[in-house]
Amino acid sequence: MGEKVFMQGNAALSEAAIRAGCKMFFGYPITPSSEMPEYYAEQAPGRDLVFVQAETEVAAFNMIAGAAAAGKRAMTGTAGPGFSLGQEAMSYMAAAALPAVVVNVMRPGPADGEILASQGDYFQATKGGGHGDYNVICLTPYSVQEQVDMIGEAFELAEKYLNPVVLLSDATLAKMRENVELPSEIVTKDVSFEGAVTGAKNRAHNVITTCGDGPAQWEAFNLKLQEKFQTIRENEQQWENIRTEDAEIIIVAFGSVARVALDTVKLARENGLKVGMIRPKRVWPFPEKAFKDMDDKKFFVVELNAGQMVEDVKLSVKNKENVQFYGRLGGFTPTPIELYEKIRELYLK
Amino acid sequence: MQVVYKRPSALQDNYFKYCGGCGHAIINKLIAEIIDEKGWLGDTIMVWPIGCSVYADQYFKTDSICALHGRAPALATGIKRARPQNLVVVYQGDGDMVSEGMSEIIHAAIRGEKFSVIFVNNAIYGMTGGQMAPTTLEGQKTSTTPYGKSIAHEGAPVNMAELISNITGCIYSERVAVNSPRNIAMTKKAIRKSLELQMEGKGMSFVEILSPCPTGWGLKPLKSLDFVEDNMIPVYPLGVFKDTEVDH
Questions:
Q1: Is residue B247 pLDDT above 90, yes or no?
Q2: Domain named Thiamine pyrophosphate enzyme TPP-binding: which ranges (chain B) (predicted)?
């Protein structure tokens, strides 16, 4: 591993991405993600990086698609409104099997909305987001360290499955400064996958297209795509269990609000309540395996939205009536005491 | 026996699926001939648009990627920045570029992306069935301007070669046509110049090609050639609008 530093979430993530071999960043400034393009812009000259400030997020997402198609690790970073603009290209990259990485620093919508932390883009990120039947792998760090650790993993997953990967951050994780251990720099391959367009020199020509050739061909193509997503569902679920063995009530939370909920678990335990937590580290594929053999437990889903992941939790448990939800909107993050009191109100009536 | 004419070896052994009398087939062939003459097959990455040339990857032996509608210049930006040593050719129609993708082409020119842009202007949407494009001429009847395009309502035709030539990042801009043997020869010269400029590592070059669309226009192929001459060229004059190597 590399050195320990005290860094802001956006900057640390960018540094980790560079060390993971992502030498190309295309982005459009948007709060709370702008320190990513700024970091790449600052580092570019001395480190052989490519940074382009795109005219729109529409263009930025197409630029990373192009760079990925040419066999290079490339990424963009954005927030809600920009993530929406990028969905056309997300659908394209999923169909074209392009391994690019997108960081969405979530902020509250709908529309222009606000700029503090939110998880309101859960549906958009986990259910495809653009047109057609597809999914993208969604990683959900809950600390600056995990942002650093997961960005390299994002590229590995993207190249393993030839599919775009989204790292779902939020304003808190992006703006927070923490002590982090940075990874050491790796050397990546010149061309990340065999079908890349690099010029047909001493090989047959490569074609990347998302245009169907009749219903039969396009159905077969789609079925193959779905096979890939099924493999990902089976192999790539990841979560963390915190004191779940003896727990009667299990908080389900991801991202920055899971950090808060960790303190709620402690607080509840100090007060004799058997509370634990399931923390999804990826929300697509959703870790439904985490809920196996937990039929007798009650679940308390906490999100920074009006209730999105709670639907996946309900699909994953045997008894839907065991699932309760609490969410904050507009950019508020609940306090540990607020969550503790909510648990008492819901379960100790 | 001496071979005087043959199928360019940069093309696959496939027939073009363009309509009879369409200019795309001529333009595709010219690009393939230049790639042959220069020996650039292994260097070329063709970036195709959404439009009538959407299946052009089935004709070429070069690496190909088909972009989203209008986004070819952004996609090509990623490709060329990733692989500056390659020959990246962006091929777009008028609906794709001037309507859906106006932002992408203008900003690629502003940044001076070092690729070649081949812009096929037939003043209509061909693939979707003959609707109006921003390049459609005044009074021209299309399926969405059934009574003729009105400048007051839809706006005047857009002169892309002139527009792009006004952007500093563009180093070469020319308009040509494929409606006569002479004009086809001029078109080949312009495309060759554009590809050469790129391989010399210079800035963006832009070649607009006026091209007949008999099916979209509801004209016979020969009449379509006249339409280019009599109706398009007066609005879209042929010529070089910018050549920084000569201008300076």
A1: no
A2: 56-209
Report pLDDT for B1.
85
With cut-offs at 50, 70 and 90, classify the pLDDT of residue B246. confident
Q: Which amino acid is at A85?
A: L
Q: How many residue pairs bridge chain A and chain B with CB atoms within 8 Å of each other? A: 133
* A49 in contact with B, Cβ within 8 Å: no
Query: For tokens 């760079």, what's the residue?
Result: A67
Going by C-alpha positions, the residue among B117, B73, B161 that lies closest to residue A52 is B73
CA-CA distance, B248 to B243, in Å (whole number)?
9
pLDDT digits (tens, 9 = 90+) for B99-118: 999 999 999 999 999 999 99
Question: Can you tell me the distance from the alpha carbon of B52 to that of A35, in angstroms, rounded to the nearest whole number?
Answer: 41
Which residue among B50, B83, B107 sits closest to A70, beta carbon to beta carbon? Answer: B83
Q: Where are the domains of chain A?
A: 4-199+226-231, 239-347
For chain A, positions 284-303, list CB contacts with chain B under 8 A. none
Closest Cα partner for B47 from B114, B115, B104?
B115
3-state secondary structure of B130: coil
Domains A4-199+226-231 and A239-347 belong to one CATH topology = yes
Domain around B69: 24-247
CATH topology of domain A239-347: Rossmann fold (3.40.50)
Nearest CA-CA distance, residue B14 and chain A, Å:
15
pLDDT tens for A222-253 read 999 999 999 999 999 999 999 999 999 999 99
Angle subtended at Cα A68 by Cα A67 and Cα A70, rounded to the nearest 5 degrees: 65
Look at residue B7 and tell me if it is in a domain.
no
Series of mean pLDDT values for 10-residue runs along chain A (349 residues): 91 98 98 98 96 98 98 98 98 98 98 97 97 98 98 98 98 98 94 96 97 96 98 98 97 98 98 97 98 96 98 97 97 98 91
For tokens 């696959």, the residue is B12
pLDDT at A348: 87
- Contact between chains at B103 and A56 (C-beta distance less than 8 A): yes
Residue of chain B whose Cα is closest to the Cα of A69? B79
- CA–CA min distance A349, chain B (Å): 56
Q: What is the C-alpha separation between A331 and A82, in angstroms, rounded? A: 18
Q: Which of B9, B36, B45, B48 is the mutation pick for testing A, counting most A CBs within 10 A?
A: B45
**Exposed/middle/buried for A221, CB within 10 Å: 0-12, 13-18, 19+?**
middle
Candidates B48, B60, B63; nearest CB to A199: B63
ipTM: 0.97
Residue range B141-168, pLDDT digits in tens: 999 999 999 999 999 999 999 999 999 9
CA distances from A16 to A130, A148, B4 (A): 28, 5, 58
Instruction: Enumerate the β-bridge partners of residue A326.
Output: A302
Contact B75 A201 (CB under 8 A): no
Question: Which of A26, A55, A96 is facing B78, going by the closest CB pair?
Answer: A26
Q: Which two tokens stand for residue B100?
A: 């859906």
Contact B55 A211 (CB under 8 A): yes
Protein fold of A4-199+226-231: Rossmann fold (3.40.50)
Separation between Cα atoms, residue A293 and residue B146, nearest integer Å:
66
Q: Closest residue of A to B45, CA-based?
A: A199
